[in-house]
Amino acid sequence: MELQQLRYVLAVAETRNFTRAAERCHIVQSAMSHQIKTLEHELGVSLFARTSRRVELTAAGTAFLPSAQESLDAAERAAADAAAAAGRICGTVTVGVIPTVTALNVPAVLGRFRRAHPEVRVRLLGGGSDEFITAIRSGSMDVAVLGLPTGEPPQGVASRELLREDLVAVVGTTHRLAGRDSIALADLDGESFVDFPVDSPGRAQSDVAFRAAGLGRDVAFESVDTAFMLEIVRQGLAVALLSRDAVPVDADVVVLEMSDGPSRVQYLAWSDFNPGPAATALLEMMCETAAR
């Protein structure tokens, strides 16, 4: 069994397509198929069920993936540690970023990091704060930017507060409240909303604020994409509660301050259990940038 074979298996598992997996690994498809068949023969099991149009993991393949990933991660960590001992930083660092991050200019930080450490590969993932916290705890993610309700700091990970902010109401240009400068939660009673999925941290701060005010709320649309949310607002279908900095100046919507609206805290989170050289270097750069 070779590490390259494990990489091929993981690529096919992620893409569910041999052609795309081969392109990702910079190898011809026939060679990748041959390597995976060789591995399957060695293991005595089929890792994939495949036809000319469909590829799926078998039960054996599903069981194989976690240890295969751990083996690759361990090999990469060994190489990174050896390089660090020689004064170089390499390897892979996995970063999670919520869709409404405003506390850090993440692309700018990654640009500086890349120039300083060109041998490091950065795996940037989008998603929600809960899944990022779980990933950091499990060791599958190195650093993440989170957004959580005020008074609910991340648990089980190291963290640093980056920014506290009040959310704003975003309405369409023809909305009945569009001419106001500031509103209260009660002014939104009876409105339809577009928000993040139920039980997600991105949604929680708004749900908490409405419950505290004794108000109900109809979330008619759910999305993890703020651009989609703003389009729903622009069409006059719903109201959104977002960070002011998440609303582009040319969004063709109206932003309203709220006297008693939701608030949230953005955090930088990481695992302080034996972080690798690349993760440590990126974390230091993020903290340095946040302190400016």
UniProtKB/TrEMBL annotation:
Keyword field contains Transcription regulation: yes
Ranges annotated as spanning the membrane: none
Molecular-function GO terms, alphabetical: DNA binding; DNA-binding transcription factor activity
Gene3D superfamilies per UniProt: 3.40.190.290, Winged helix-like DNA-binding domain superfamily/Winged helix DNA-binding domain
Example of a GO cellular component annotation carried by this entry: protein-DNA complex
Cited CDD domains: PBP2_LTTR_like_3
PANTHER family: HTH-TYPE TRANSCRIPTIONAL REGULATOR CYNR, TRANSCRIPTIONAL DUAL REGULATOR HCAR-RELATED
Protein name: LysR family transcriptional regulator
Naturally occurring in which organism (per UniProt): Corynebacterium kalidii
